[in-house]
Design brief:
22% of the residues lie in helices and 41% in strands. The chain has 109 residues and is an alpha+beta fold. The strands form 2 sheets. The chain has a 4-stranded antiparallel sheet with strand order 2-3-1-6, with helices on one face. β2 and β3 form a beta hairpin. α1 packs across α2. The chain starts with a strand and ends in a 7-residue tail after the last strand.
Length: 109
């Protein structure tokens, strides 16, 4: 048995949970924060048998696409203004960061 932990952008989370549910994957959804833009993320925990890991990863890949987003940088209050770029820049967002870890035991009470 494996535990898949997928960190995805909030915008992708509902679509991903629905797609996983259609294929009978049970998920636990956790709110998380982090990354370059300090925006909200969703961390999904998915428990599955070893032979279904590739199926789950394919669903994650299909529903969490990378895309570009226009971001306005924050002014460096009190910091070094030499590297400050005063205009919006395109950054790549989305996708998924996925960890697959072995599960020694699983109990449901």
């Amino acid at each position: 048995m494996k535990l898949i932990m997928a960190v995805v952008q909030d915008k992708d989370s509902n679509r991903l949970v629905d797609a996983l549910g259609e294929k009978q994957f049970k998920t636990t959804k956790l709110s998380s924060t982090g990354g370059f833009l300090k925006e909200g993320n969703t961390t999904l925990m998915i428990g599955c048998d070893d032979e279904h890991v590739d199926d789950a990863l394919e669903i994650i890949r299909d529903n969490c696409s990378q895309r570009e987003q226009l971001v306005s940088p924050v002014s460096p209050m009190g910091g070094n203004a030499d590297s400050y770029i005063p205009r919006p820049v395109n950054v790549e967002v989305g996708g998924a960061t996925v960890f697959v870890v072995p599960v020694d035991a699983f109990h449901q009470f």
